[in-house]
Each structure stands twice: as C-alpha cells, then as structure tokens.
Amino acid sequence: MADLATSSFPALGTTAFVVTRPAMLIAASREVELELEGIDRTCSRFRDDSDLFRLNDAGGAWTEVDALLVEAVDVALRAARITDGLVDPTVGEAMLRIGYDRDFSQVAPDGPALPPAPSWMSMAGGWRHVEVRPERREIRIPRGVRLDLGSTAKALAADRAAVRAAEAAGCGVLVSLGGDVAIGGEAPDGCWPVGIADDHEGVPEPGETITIASGGLATSSTTVRRWSRGGVPVHHIVDPRTGSPADEVWRTVSVCAATCVDANTASTAAVILGDEAPDWLERQGLPARLLATDGSIARVAGWPERTAA
User: Fold this and answer.
1) Which of 6, 11, 138, 265 has most Cβ atoms within 10 angstroms of its Cβ?
2) Of 272, 267, 265, 308, whose CA–CA distance to 290 is shortest?
3) How far apart are CA 262 and CA 267, in angstroms?
4) pLDDT (0 to 100) of residue 178
5) In the chain, which residue ranges form alpha helices assigned H by DSSP?
6) Residue 33 class from Cβ within 10 Å (0-12 exposed, 13-18 middle, 19+ buried)?
7) How far apart are CA 207 and CA 215, in angstroms?
8) Strand ranges (E), the chain
C-alpha cells in the first residue's frame, strides 16, 4: 500500500477524515474544510443564518437561495423519488417532534414523552410538494413543512469534497464524514481499504475491512445519535410513513454505490424498510452488509464474507 497520511477535524456534527499522500495532505484537507464550511453555512437547519433556515421559516413563500442549496434539495428530491419516498427531506417537523431540534451535541439525553404524531405527519409523499426554480435559484415548500437535509447533504458534502480535494492535490483522496465515504481521483495501488464498524469513531470489526476503488460507501446506523423521550429510546432515522423513528430491525446497514449520495440513500432506505431491506438491495444490485439487532449479518449483492483474522 502506498504511503498515506490522515488528518481529522470536527465538521457537520461529526468527525471528518481526509486520507491522501503525505505531501498533499494539507492542501487536500484545506479544500475539504472549505467545502464542508459551505455546506454547513447553506444546508444546516440549526444555524439561523443558513439558507435552509430561511427557507424553512418562509411560510410557504418562494425563497431565493444559494445555488448550493438548490443542488442539495435536488439531490434530496431525487433520493425521495428513487426510494418511493422512503428517504424524504420533508421530515423536518418530525425531527423537531422527536427532540432533534438542535445540534446533536446539545440534545438532552432524555425529555418529555413524545406526543402522538399528527395525522398529516404520517402521510408519505410530502417531497412531491417541494417546488424548485433552478434558473432563479428559488425554492418553495408548503406552509408548515420543514426540510431536513441531514442525510443526503452530508453524503453530497463527502462527494463534492473528495472531488475538490483530489483536483487540488493532483492525486487520490478519501474523505469520510461520519460513516459517509467518498473517493476522489485515482485510488493508491488501485483501491482503498475501509473498515466497517457500528460507530464511525469506533474500531472496525475484525475481518470486516473491504476495498473500494471509486464511488462511495455509506453506513446508516441506529446505534449512534440516540437519546430518550419519556424513558423510551429514539434515534434519528425517521420513517416518513409514520413520522416516528424507524423500527429497529438493523443496527447498521453499509452500502457501496457509484456515489456516496446513492450509497447513503440506499442505506437509509434499508434501515426504514426493515425485514424487506435485503431483497430490496439485491434488486437494486447494491452490495450491502446488514447487521441485525440480534447480531446476525446479511450480505447481499456480492458484499464479501468476513476474512480470517
């Protein structure tokens, strides 16, 4: 394996890792930082100076926004379309209801019991009512609807940052953002080794390291970003069909795809699909590893078996 160096720093409520050749690490890391700053400034629902915050507070009016938010919303709407609404950006109000109303580091570990979900909140398809005028850089969402781009925007950030960093460095770069991994440029020695773990800051499970040469890898998990309401555990992956956290069939789902956005879209949809997820991923032709709450593992579409320790 080629000589490589790694830098890390906090970003987007998680930890960013940048891996590339040692001589180009500073340049690559700087480009990644700039890209992530732009995504946070534009797409955060917690910053009152972000374009997304303004859009969510616009009361149903057309809102002029940065081109980056137009791209991020387009990406989120595509994710909703290709998953038949399983990954829906209009779950922002549901996120507030379950207590994820600020940066996760500030979310109280417990709080009042969850109120019943309003009937309108359990109706899938809210994404169909989001309107975009890309030529004018304008977006309109219905009054009372709030967008949450946390899933797809982070994956988009990884994809964009990896390309930007590779162009600046003139060599291959791997970017990892809390379980979202994207590749830019040509991988050293033809591939990158990536360990799979429940927690993006944890130790990879023995024998569960795979190699990827391009595209993206994403892991969605119900084991991190957890808290309680009324003593009942909740997590951050909301099922748009109910407006509540998805039933916990899988602890983690890892998926490889042509982009990090596509991988994240599929891994999130799989968590929501529960028992139906393996067959769905197989039909999509997406290599995936699904770790169930009982510790059993399903591998589909060519995901490699565990190697000997």
Assistant:
1) 265
2) 267
3) 9
4) 87
5) 25-43, 51-56, 67-82, 92-97, 150-169, 260-273, 277-284
6) middle
7) 22
8) 5-11, 14-20, 63-64, 131-133, 138-140, 173-177, 180-184, 192-195, 209-212, 216-221, 226-229, 232-235, 238-239, 244-245, 250-257, 288-292, 297-300
Smallest CA-to-CA distance from 240 within 168, 151, 161, 300 is with 151
Query: Which residues lie across from 180 on neighbouring strands?
Result: 177, 218
Q: Could you tell me if 53 and 120 are in contact, meaning their C-beta atoms sit under 8 angstroms apart?
A: no
* 237, 245 Cβ separation under 8 angstroms: yes
Joined tokens for residue 232: 């009942």
Domain covering 1-309 assigned CATH 3.40.1110.10 in the classification: no
**Domain range annotation of the chain:** 1-309
Mean pLDDT score across all residues of the chain: 92
Orientation angle between helical segments 67-82 and 25-43, nearest 10 degrees: 80
The answer to whether 240 and 126 are in contact (CB under 8 A) is: yes
| pLDDT score for 72 | 98
pLDDT at 170 over 90: yes
| 162 and 174 Cβ atoms separated by less than 8 Å | yes
> pLDDT-derived band of residue 307, with 50, 70 and 90 as boundaries?
confident
Residues in CB range of 246: below 8 A, 6 or more apart: 222, 235, 237, 238, 239, 271, 272, 274
Model confidence, pTM: 0.93
